[in-house]
## 1
Amino acid sequence: MTPPKLRIAGLHKSFGTGERRTEVLRDINLDLADNEFVSLVGTSGCGKSTLLSIVAGLQDFDAGDLSIDGAPILQPGLDRGVVFQSYTLLPWLTARQNIEFALKAAGYDRATCRRIALEHLDLVKLSHSADRYPSELSGGMKQRVAIARALSYRPKMLLMDEPFGALDALTRHQMQELLTQIWEEHRLTVLFVTHDVEEAVYLSDRIVVMGIGPGRITQTFNVDIERPRREEVMESPAFMDLQRGVHKAIREGSKRPEMALAG
Ligand SMILES: Nc1ncnc2c1ncn2[C@@H]1O[C@H](COP(=O)(O)OP(=O)(O)OP(=O)(O)O)[C@@H](O)[C@H]1O
């Protein structure tokens, strides 16, 4: 049987040792199919970012299995493109050079780096800003460069942690449209962390709700809303019902299990 694109099985994670040990993730089990778009939502501190950074290979874990296409994840790798909320561009390099920098590290020759960088700037509609420095770009533009960079080395998966969290509502919506378009054209597998339930429903195939005490998966919702989705779909009863359901699950997950039992 073909393994899932991403497998997270029986994953546990704690920070600190001895009396200062805090259990942050308990028994996380989650498989992502090829091309699936999955959002992680949940109250602050439930471990979404920790889980994403473990999948990125940026943090270790205590127990469990983690693999991409059946191969264990041991460290960061070019099979995973990562986009964070804070713009992680190098300020002394232009938009094009930021992408080329990542590609050079992946071993491409100079001409190929340039060609791929320009192709990806075109993909995020930033060809006209290739030679601008990050300080000359708006927040949305910087995030488009970060997305172009993450896609440029053709990762198997895109890991995104609140990528549009710092943007104003209009720019955020434009970025959601752009991501949907890229996802529809390139059929990527995406694991996406967000606080915005509307965004999660709009973008995802599946929404995974995490709760605290310690961080764990409490509920999963399939988003059976036809694609391609356009803005109007947010007004539909199915969309709003789902949004309400996810909000309720987040509220329930924000109570510690003993509180939930007590009512
Ligand atoms: N390096 C660290 N050392 C100790 N504790 C940590 C560390 N990183 C995160 N934590 C703790 O782990 C828990 C989960 O944090 P995490 O940032 O993953 O949550 P989150 O769901 O992404 O939160 P938010 O939605 O606020 O970003 C929190 O209690 C946090 O204090």
## 2
Amino acid sequence: MTVLVTGGAGYIGSHMVWSLLDNGEDVVVLDRLSTGFRWALAPEARLYVGDVADPNLLDSIFKNHQIEAIIHFAGSVVVPDSVSDPLSYYENNTVKSRALIAAAVAAGVPHFVFSSTAAVYGTPQDSQPVAENAALNPESPYGWSKLMTEIMLRDTAAATPLTYTALRYFNVAGSDPKRRTGQSTAGATHLIKVACEVALGKRSRLSVYGTDYPTTDGTCVRDYIHVSDLTSAHLKALKRMRAGGRSIVANCGYGRGFSVLDVVDCVKRVSGNDFEVSLVDRRPGDAASVIANAEVARREFDWVPEYDDLDLIVQTALAWEDLLSKRNDK
Ligand SMILES: NC(=O)c1ccc[n+]([C@@H]2O[C@H](COP(=O)([O-])OP(=O)(O)OC[C@H]3O[C@@H](n4cnc5c(N)ncnc54)[C@H](O)[C@@H]3O)[C@@H](O)[C@H]2O)c1
Ligand SMILES: O=c1ccn([C@@H]2O[C@H](COP(=O)(O)OP(=O)(O)O[C@H]3O[C@H](CO)[C@@H](O)[C@H](O)[C@H]3O)[C@@H](O)[C@H]2O)c(=O)[nH]1
């Protein structure tokens, strides 16, 4: 039995592949290498280079391997890009997910884990931390593109034997503590990644997008989660479905928020390097504040995070950034 990981050459996917292999799973990866890297992949995982919506490629993967679960990371991930180019986000995240789900159902794949996002909530209107049954009001096409995929999964699971888990990730950061992989995205836009690049002198400055949000210091607040805690949530969610668990949606975050300025201070402190910060206008599509209530993950699959510490997240992100510079220098 094999687990198919789409987007397995990307940031989170490459960590997932290592976690699966560490747990004795057989892994096949499907990735078109648009933002991922062949070298990021564990050598034991077989890579099919191509698109998640390519029917011939999917057909051959399902013929060559007995796929028992799909973990679907492949997608486009930059919130402001989705505002400027919404149709490409609906294409890559929604339309192509539909094709993959259809192929999974046709091939009789029993389990599906989907990379959803905190962006489905927008800025929660009621209370924070936000639970899965809160109102869903995405503030970007990215959030909508993921919510539509959740809805397709919900309705497909009701009509077919497919069981799914949609994990709503909050802000994923950090790198593999064993330093086998990390976030290598070229021209990355994620706050912790960008701040680490600036701290190590790989970029000249950091822009802080918006200082007039209704938060304690006026900058946006996010719930930053270490990538290894996220991959452990996937393993546990998969185990639960294998044991007969029904389809669910679960938040993955720690339940506490840090502002952009908190993150900047942390990166300066942990790296020991001061750097320049520009306070600029808001970036389109950003929610003011979003913090996870992760009770469902704890209750349904006994998720116990191990890296709930912003300093530790930043330390591992910096460690990877340092390795990456040495690699790029070669
Ligand atoms: N990074 C975060 O904080 C975060 C938070 C919430 C949800 N997510 C979701 O997690 C998933 C992974 O994100 P990431 O940060 O690792 O991004 P990433 O860009 O590093 O990884 C995405 C991978 O998917 C591949 N890919 C993209 N479109 C494809 C397609 N049509 N066919 C085949 N391969 C394709 C890319 O080459 C890349 O390897 C995404 O679905 C994203 O929306 C990420
Ligand atoms: O150089 C930067 C980068 C980011 N930010 C701010 O930092 C916050 C976090 O931004 P970013 O790290 O880009 O993450 P999000 O836009 O919150 O989105 C991430 O987190 C979501 C889950 O919350 C995922 O779904 C997305 O794929 C992922 O990109 C936002 O307020 C940004 O405006 C800055 O001020 N300067």
## 3
Amino acid sequence: MADSKKIKSALISVFDKAGLEPIIRELAKNQVTIYSTGGTQAFIEDLGVNVVPVEDLTSYPSILGGRVKTLHPKVFGGILNRRDLADDQQQIAEYEIPEIDLVIVDLYPFEKTVASGADQAAIIEKIDIGGISLIRAAAKNYKDVVIIPSVDQYSEFVEILEKQNGETTLEQRKSFARDAFNVSSHYDTHIFRYFNQGEKELFKQSIQDSQVLRYGENPHQKGIFHGDMGAIFDKLHGKELSYNNLLDVDAAVNLMEEFKNDGPTFAILKHNNACGLATRSSIREAYKDALAGDPVSAFGGILIANTKIDAETAGDINELFCEVVIAPDFEEAALEVLKSKKNRIILRQKPVELPARQFRTILNGVLEQDKDFISDKKEDFESKTSSVPTASQMEDLEFANKLVKHTKSNTIVLAKNKQLLASGTGQTSRVDALVQAIHKAKSFKFDLQDAVMASDAFFPFPDCVEIAGNEGVNAVVQPGGSIKDELSINYCNENGIAMVFTGNRHFKH
Ligand SMILES: NC(=O)c1ncn([C@@H]2O[C@H](COP(=O)(O)O)[C@@H](O)[C@H]2O)c1NC=O
């Protein structure tokens, strides 16, 4: 190949020595001169392969506890000289700088050290200086030099060495250089984030895992998920998650987080909103009553439970066509039943915390905010009417208010006996949301007498309490805060409806 180059010399300096042996063996087979740093040198010597200590090149020992070992013109001159530039060649001859054709580096594990909870001094020592400089230098000079910037490139590189007798093409060297700048930019992003601790409002994220999806929201849109699903779920069965599945899974997991300390709770979601939700004494009952909320919308839905799914519940679920089933665990027999549908996606959710910040693109930038962490408790509800909710109404108000927070605005949730009767979702007016909810509840033959109503934001006028009161709703939870709150309160007082304020608006757009 015209642009192939034979590797004649290499500098190897790796923190983690695992996986290095096959490369060393290939390089030895090709009579490559190997330069190396302390620990790596010892590892190579133990393999019985000749290695030149980098100190022989630099005529300096490793100093300052290893902070300076490869940072030397003889090393960087050997990497950065342009093989086709006469001036560079004249200078490296003058200063007796040997050429270095290959650099293999594995950086100090900065991210892992931070995650381990190590103290600041230990973390600072894990900021690699020499290694990152070697990576940048070799990647910059990819026309002449091969850079292997992490263990992730080892197997590809060994294959090239074997197949191409120790030669690499320009295209291969450029591809490794791209990987190198990915490694170095990811590394520096994490160092920045450690130093910044959110003080400077800069958007700097680096996510290494990504998954190309079948398509985006629609088949003509390309879709990619940047993240690591494996950190949150064990995927036990089923087809690839789609873009829309992922949005629903996100909505489902965040909704169920709200019920993690409650009794057995089951939710069914469609288009990011719950169409069924119930808390019962068993997960099977919870599933049945969640499904009863809207058995029509449940078709093709995303199902989530807050407790282990047993075989009987799985048998019931199996009668429904659903895309995804999520639970903290499944009985073996339940899995067997659920796996009977080839495409059904089964996710076992791991007990890990989700990130505290949310991002979304808008216009030519990114919006960032804290997650809505406020989970209103019934003990904190402020009663605003002469009639106060009964104990069971309080339970229902808390239940409905948890759901309202996870439903698209404007929304109204109607609930009774810890079961979602119906909601109005994503409406441009609150009255529309209520009318939609009433219509839906009635269409599934729910009796709204003694139901409760939750609203994600205040009522600007008393119209909602009037309409709901006429249907039999007799307890209401809302944030409050309208200049016309009194009108809604007065209506409730005149009609024996209990109303409580949370003080917290829960818009979700
Ligand atoms: N300071 C330097 O000149 C330097 N040169 C290479 N390193 C790092 O030293 C590590 C390898 O050290 P050893 O071969 O001694 O185990 C690698 O992670 C490499 O990225 C250095 N250490 C940190 O900056």
